[in-house]
Amino acid sequence: MASIWTGAIAFGLVNIPVRVETAVRSHDLSFRLLAPKGKDDFCPVKYERVCKNDGKEVPWNEIVKGYEYEKDRFVVLTDEDFEKAALATNKTFEIQDFAPEGEVDPRFFEKPYYLIPQKGGERAYALLRDAMRNSGTLGIGTITLRKKQYLASIKPIGDAIVLDLMRFADEVLDADEFRFPEADYRPQELKMAEQLIGSLTESFEPEKYADQYRANLEKIIAAKMKGKKVTLKETAEPEMTGVIDLMDRLRESLEETPKKSGSKGKKKSTSSSSKRKSA
Questions:
Q1: How far apart are the C-alpha atoms of 167 and 107, rounded to whole Å?
Q2: Strands (E), 101-145
Q3: Are 99 and 140 in contact, with CB atoms under 8 Å apart?
Q4: What is the per-residue pLDDT for 272?
Q5: Cβ contact 213:272 at 8 Å
Q6: CA 151 to CA 135: how far, in whole Å?
Q7: Does 88 have pLDDT greater than 60?
Q8: Radius of gyration, CA atoms only, the chain
Q9: Strand partners of residue 42
Q10: What is the pLDDT of residue 67?
Q11: pLDDT at position 238, please?
């Protein structure tokens, strides 16, 4: 598979040739839109590019991109226009600043990629990686991918340098636009909630979590292919906890929750899990 981007990391007068490879993969199921033609007979629905004014289909080679600045009035942009707007940023990720990693709001991060060193850049790559790790910083700059510029950061993870596409400040909504509750709980409730969190705390193991919705869809698809029906175990919806019984729910949860020993906790019984969900 071709690399997403090939260019260089630049900080100071140092340039490190790298290529960008995706760091995540999607397991979403793909579905087609179908039109029923008869019993057990379906026809895929075809999308057509149709002119809004005359209803005629338009070939791909006649389609251009335009910006609508007024109702039904457009400025057409060519490939050359997009290349001019990208300037030199389409081949270089220049680190403008280094920031303490813990100071960056998680809302800014969007999607991770691996930066793979190109031939001749291995030594500088390792140097930058280890220097950021020892200083506890990440590099901030901008990068242009697929005709769009992103705020981005790089940070060491293991032996790799990972590039995270980020959102610009005006893309992140300010929390002041919403209303959030004030702290009107009792000190005892806070203490019990902290105890409950402590009893449920263990090291993060991503492998233990699974996409149950996708698994259920796969079971349904497999059964339908064989002309069978599948019965899935329903999960009870959690009940809302009212103000009056909050203390009782916390106390009951603590009594039913086994304490963790180190990073590994005992397996919880089905009954205790269901009680915690309802709480």
A1: 8
A2: 109-117, 137-145
A3: yes
A4: 41
A5: no
A6: 22
A7: no
A8: 27
A9: 36
A10: 93
A11: 61
How many helices (H) and strands (E) are present in the chain, helices listed first? Answer: 6, 11
Q: What angle do CA 43, 44, 48 make, to 5 degrees?
A: 125
Domains and CATH numbers, the chain: 5-26+83-171 (2.40.290.10), 187-278 (no CATH)
Average pLDDT over residues 179-183: 90
Per DSSP, the three-state class of 168 is coil
Where are the extended beta strands (E) located within 123-264? 137-145, 148-157, 160-166
Q: How far apart are CA 18 and CA 8, in angstroms?
A: 5
CA distances from 100 to 169, 211, 271 (A): 18, 33, 44
pTM for this one? 0.69
Q: What's the whole-number mean pLDDT along residues 183-209?
A: 88
d(CA 148, CA 172) in angstroms, rounded, equals 17
Write out pLDDT tens, residues 221-276: 888 888 888 887 776 666 655 555 777 877 888 888 776 544 444 444 444 444 44
Interatomic CA distance for residues 203 and 258, integer angstroms:
16
Q: At residue 217, what is the residue type?
A: L
Q: How far apart are CA 43 and CA 28, in angstroms?
A: 23
Tell me how long the chain is: 279
